[in-house]
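Section 4.2 – Deliverable D4.2 (structural model, holo form)

The reporting period included a commitment to supply a predicted holo structure for the target in complex with nickel (II) ion. Inputs used:
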Amino acid sequence: MKRKILIHPDPRLKKVCEPVADISDELRRLADDMLETMYDAPGIGLAAPQVGHLDRLIVLDCVKEEGAAPRPLVMFNPEIKAASDEVSVYDEGCLSIPDQYAEVTRPREVEVEWLDRDGNLQRETFDGLWATCVQHEIDHLNGKLFIDYLKPLKRQMITRKMQKLKREMARA
Ligand code: NI
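Output (C-alpha cells):
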C-alpha cells in the first residue's frame, strides 16, 4: 500500500527518530509500503519519518541502469561506522522537497551497519550514489534535510517555495 509522503516544512521531518527495538510484522509491512511508495514516486531512497513514522527505518535502491535487477534494501537502525576523508558532490533532491535540487558534499565512501528485515546484522561499504543516498536517508532519521547543508538564503528560498506548494495542494 502506498503511503502519503510528507512535504517540508513539517515538524515530523525535524524529529530524531527512535531506534527499533523489535522488528514486528507491522514494521516489515511499513518497510514494504515505503519501498512501493519510493518506486512509485519515483525515488531512490525513503526514510520512515517522510511517511510520518518516527522509527529508525530507511529503504533504498540506487540501481539506475535500465533493465538491471533492482536491489531493494531495508535498513533498521542504520549506523555509519566509518566514512572516507575523500568526498563527492551530488546534485541531491528529496521526495519531501519536490523538484528542488542542490549540490551537497559528503564522504565518498561509508561503512554502514544495520539490521535487515529478519533482524540479522548487516555491514557493507557503499560508494558513489549509494553512499550519498544512504547518508541522506540516515540524516532524515536525525531530523536533518539536505537543504540544511545549504546557505541560509538558499534554504529559505526553497522553504518558501514548499510553503507555497503546500498551500496550493491544500486548495486543490
Ligand atoms: Ni530525502
